[in-house]
Amino acid sequence: MTEKHALRKKLLAARREMPPEEKAWRDKAIGERLLAWLEKNPAACIGVYWPTQAEPDLTGLYKVLDERGVRLALPVVVERDAPLEFHAWRPGDALTADAHGVMAPVERSATVKPDLLVVPCVGFDARGYRLGYGGGYYDRTLAAELPPRTVGVAYGMCEAVFGVGEHDVRLGSVVTDIFQRSS
User: Fold this and answer.
1) With 170 labelled, which of 103, 121, 151, 160 sits at a CA distance of 20 to 30 A?
2) Predicted pLDDT at 17
3) Sign for the pseudo-dihedral over CA of 115, 45, 101, 16
4) pTM of this prediction?
5) What are phi and psi of 130, to 5 degrees?
6) pLDDT digits over 36-55, tens only?
């Protein structure tokens, strides 16, 4: 088992084992910190994510952003080993599970290019590198010639030390339930 695979397994287990009341206050803290970060780092169109595998649930924040006129988009996996596509979405729009079980918009508009991506992290390090699920979708998306700005979100307990590969892309900032750090 590789170092990253073992670490990923450990961090995912820690997220799943978190009591619901603890997860709720941690999610709320991340949402508040992210909203404060966004007020200093505004974006007209933000690529967000639908929570899966005990990721921080920021769906309440998405409603606030939508009410403030921020355009939102959700990622869609279109094919294996390809970058993500983002499609416009608003809270309340119908969602369906994609091939990976991740919720995506039922109605697929033309793809949009968000100026900021909120990137869920299984883990992260002090330098701003992200440990994801291992599929490389966000890394391929961020390898674009003109990538969007990024802010990773994770639970503070998921900060870890791990090796970085040649395709790993550093996040611009990381927001957790206990701090916000810019890379």
Assistant:
1) 103
2) 97
3) positive
4) 0.95
5) -110, 140
6) 999 999 999 999 999 999 99
